[in-house]
Each structure stands twice: as structure tokens, then as C-alpha cells.
Amino acid sequence: MLLEKEALDGATHRLAELFEARPEVRRSNEPAVDLEVEVADTKLALCFKANPTVAAVTQAADRLLAAAPRAVPLVVAPFMGFDARAALQVRGVAWLDLSGNVHIKAPRLLLHIEGKENKFKRSGRPQDVFAPRSARVARAMLHQHERWFTQNELAQVAHLSAMQVGRVVKRLVSDELLERNAKRAVRARDPRRLLEAWRPSYDFNKHHIVQVHRFARSGEELTGAIHEILSDLRIEHAFTGLAAAWLFRPVAAYRTSSVYVSRMLTDDELEHAGLRREESGGNLLLVAPNDDDIMREEYCWEVEGTKCVSQVQAWLDLHAHPERAKEAAAELLEHDMPWNRKAKA
Predict the structure, then answer these.
(1) For the chain, N or C: smaller number of CB within 10 Å?
(2) pLDDT tens digits for 24-40?
């Protein structure tokens, strides 16, 4: 593990090379700032993250922006991954990694180098706290965002072993996505931040998806017809994506419907239901989930007799959908999450 002092010394040396000038270095009184550096008339406020997850770097960025508004905020890491870079770019925050990559943009200044390989790769497979089964911890935390969970309680709710829960919780606490109380129980520090940290790791296309077409004048009509078909076949199902967003908040019309199914339809069932397989251009996605937790009863909603996944799951899925999916995702995030409903009450 790269130590903070070693990393900050390395960053200072790298800044001297980039600016071709000797930097002035000071320790900061601000807890969010690890080091203040002034080089070639540019003031920078540095924060080092040994494990630069999206959650870790965005939190560091937000704190730097608040603590040092007159300096260029600079997040330093051993190696800055693509998702972390993108998250910092959205916030307009500079970054530098000790593998040789850098992006610093300030008035009359632009330094950008990328393509350098990670010099700090660890052996073994890293723990992905948002892998399908591991993500059960985040899902439980988001649906009961005010509850404090002991490790054993969380293992029961997430249907995981205590050992696996312990590993996931340790990482989430380290990334400051969960907080502990005096009894060592945990809950989401900021539900929205936890959800946004999940998104870069989530890939809708890793589910088993069959794209089909069925004539319908609207997405709403299609959703209703598919609900009847699947109910007649006694296939458990829950709508997601634009169909779910419409059920929660009927703002914009849609054409493409998506539905999780407990089992995939056979070719005969597809034909009997008037569903035609399409390589592209279909208006219905039949989705067999890569984790049954998505369709658990306590995580789903029934709206006007039609079952759909939770707002959390729908929001994650919408980022892979067409049409006005981004707009629908934004509406869900701002108005319909469990913590939004609590705030309104």
C-alpha cells in the first residue's frame, strides 16, 4: 500500500517536472486538504486517495472545492481509473496519478497526459462491492436507508454469509459510503451518494436479455399486454426501465418496454404470444436477472395491478435504455427514491 507521505512527495516532484519550476509546499489547516502547493503562480490543494473509487474521489473533490475555493483542487492517486476520471471531470476537478497520467485545467493552463499503465496493480482479483451478489448489501441499505444494521442482521436481509457481508461492509465504510454507530452497526451515510457510486459498476447488459417485437400503439399498451401474457403463463415478472418509470411517474410517453422474468419464454411461448425475436429494433426486452435479489417481493412495487422493480433498480437500468431514459432517471432520482418520500413527509 502506497503511504500518504510517499504519495504526496511523489505528486510534488511530478508537479515540479510538469511546471518546470520549484514548488512551495505547505501543510494545510483544512482537514480536507492534505497539502498546499504553489508552483509557477498556480496554487493547488491536494488530497490523496490510496483507493480511488468513484465514491472516494467525488467526496474528496467536493471537500476540496468547499475547503479551498481559491486553489485548483487536485486529487492524487496511485492510478486513476476511467470512471474516477469521468467523475472528477464532471465536477471540474483536476487529478494526477503516480503512474504518469494527469489532467489539470486552470486559467491559462492545461496539462493532460493519459495512456500510462497502472504501476500499482495488485495481484489477485479485487473485491467488487457492487458485483451482482455483493450489491445486495447496497440494495438493502438503500431500501432501508434510515436503519442501523448489525453484520448478522445485514447477512440475513441480504441472504449472504456473514463473512461476505463483512468484506463488503469494510470496503463501503472505507469508501465513506457507510457509517458506523457506537454499537458498530452500519447504515448508508448518504443514500444518493451510495446509489451514484454503484452506477459505474453496474452493467445492464450482463443480464440475459432477449429482444423481441410485438405490435403496440404505445409503450403503455405494450406493457399492459405483456403483463397479461406473462400472468397467463404464470411467469413471475417485474417491469423496469421506461415502463417502471412511467408507472412511478407518467411524465413522458415511451415505446420500448423492459421486464424481468423468473424464467425465459420458450420459442413456442414467444410465437403463441405474438412475440418475434429481433436482433435490433425490438420494442420489448425480456430480461432474466443475473441475481434473483432484483425481483424479491420486498424490493418490488405494484402500481395499478402491474408489478415493477424498485426505484433504485429502475434508475440503474434506465442508464442503458433509449429514448427519454436519462430524463426519466433524473426524475426518479430527484422525486421518487425512498429518501425523497421521507423528505416530503
Answers:
(1) C
(2) 999 998 999 999 999 99
